[in-house]
């Protein structure tokens, strides 16, 4: 085959092939990271920190992870840095989760490394409509305008705030890791089982913490907790409609509803502005509490958040 190629291909093509082979070898030489087994670690890039935790729980010592949205970053508006796009050349897989910055970037991420496996971790998950939370009583015009800008397709991306849905994501991550590195299937399986068991325990502890609080309403600035609310029988009221600051009329409606419901706490998150949350807190004589849906240690964070909700909702 080689000699045949040599005899039929013009020399400049051969030269190009030789160069490409050299470049490929050069790249490969930079890639390996030693792992305990003596093999190479799988480089996995993810969008947000909780996913990094999921992948590390399942991949253990056989994966090396990189996260696109750094701590404190906003997954709705984040713009990956040129270094981050370049680093994708080392990734064996990119695991997306459906956060908004992916809408603008996923094609470019894919184009940055055609060899990289694209894993959609929303697969098998039915996303719910973004909550249009507060009632705009007596504000029909406003409501219609909002419905227009809010057509179908405005699905809630925050699927990692549901432990039940994280079990589905964990299975998807496990399947992808096994395909990429079948030699460590047994380890991945053990890690997956341990993670799933932890999630079951977490769900039980959250249910216990929230017992007796069915249908209680909580007020958030950004609607990150819709799946959590659905799973555990709470009702989320959101100040912001995904990405959009409230209008004066919407603020007034939220303030009226919060007063009516006796709500004294507004949950905001450290990654986003707390300005309108603070304004509303002042109006209702309440306070702003910061909780993040984006902490790396997802398991500990979810339990902490549930405890905070419980303490807040149980206040007289
Ligand atoms: Zn969000």
Protein architecture, described:
With about 325 residues, the protein is α/β, with parallel strands linked by helices. It folds into two domains: about 1-25 and about 40-135 and about 160-200, Nitrogenase molybdenum iron protein domain (Rossmann fold, 3-Layer(aba) Sandwich); about 215-315, Rossmann fold. The chain has twelve helices and eight strands. It has helices spanning about 1-10, 10-30, 50-60, 80-85, 100-110, 140-150, 165-180, 185-210, 225-230, 250-260, 275-285, 300-315, and strands at about 40-45, 65, 95, 115-120, 215-220, 235-240, 265-270, 285-290. The protein has a four-stranded parallel β-sheet with strand order 2-1-3-4, sandwiched between helices. The chain has a four-stranded parallel β-sheet with strand order 6-5-7-8, with helices on both faces. Strand 1 (about 40-45), helix 3 and strand 2 form a beta-alpha-beta unit. Helix 3 (about 50-60) packs across helix 8 (about 185-210). It is globular. It starts with a helix and ends with a helix. The model is unreliable at about 1-35 and about 135-150 (pLDDT under 50). Zinc ion binds near residues 76, 158, 222 and 224.
């Amino acid at each position: 085959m080689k000699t045949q190629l040599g005899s039929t291909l013009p020399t400049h093509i051969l030269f190009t092939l030789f160069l490409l082979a050299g470049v490929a070898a050069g790249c490969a030489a930079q890639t390996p990271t030693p792992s305990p087994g003596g093999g190479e670690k799988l480089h996995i890039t993810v969008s947000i920190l909780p996913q990094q935790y999921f992948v590390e729980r399942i991949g253990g010592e056989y994966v090396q992870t990189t996260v696109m949205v750094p701590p404190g970053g906003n997954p709705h508006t984040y713009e990956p840095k040129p270094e981050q796009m370049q680093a994708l050349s080392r990734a064996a897989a990119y695991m997306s989760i459906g956060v908004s910055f992916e809408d603008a970037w996923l094609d470019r991420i894919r184009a940055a490394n055609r060899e990289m496996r694209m894993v959609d971790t929303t697969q098998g998950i039915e996303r719910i409509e973004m909550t249009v939370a507060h009632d705009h009583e007596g504000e029909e015009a406003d409501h219609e305008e909002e419905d227009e800008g809010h057509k179908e397709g405005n699905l809630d991306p925050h699927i990692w705030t549901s432990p039940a849905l994280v079990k589905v994501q964990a299975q998807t991550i496990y399947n992808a890791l096994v395909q990429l590195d079948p030699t460590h299937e047994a380890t991945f399986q053990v890690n997956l089982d341990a993670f799933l068991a932890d999630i079951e325990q977490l769900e039980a502890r959250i249910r216990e913490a929230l017992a007796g609080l069915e249908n209680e309403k909580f007020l958030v600035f950004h609607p990150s907790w819709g799946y959590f609310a659905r799973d555990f029988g709470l009702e989320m009221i959101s100040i912001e409609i995904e990405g959009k600051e409230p209008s004066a009329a919407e603020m007034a409606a939220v303030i009226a509803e919060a007063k009516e419901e006796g709500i004294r706490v507004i949950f905001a998150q450290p990654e986003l502005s707390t300005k309108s949350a603070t304004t509303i807190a002042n109006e209702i004589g309440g306070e702003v509490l910061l909780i993040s849906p984006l902490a790396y240690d997802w398991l500990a964070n979810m339990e902490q958040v549930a405890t905070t909700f419980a303490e807040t909702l149980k206040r007289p």
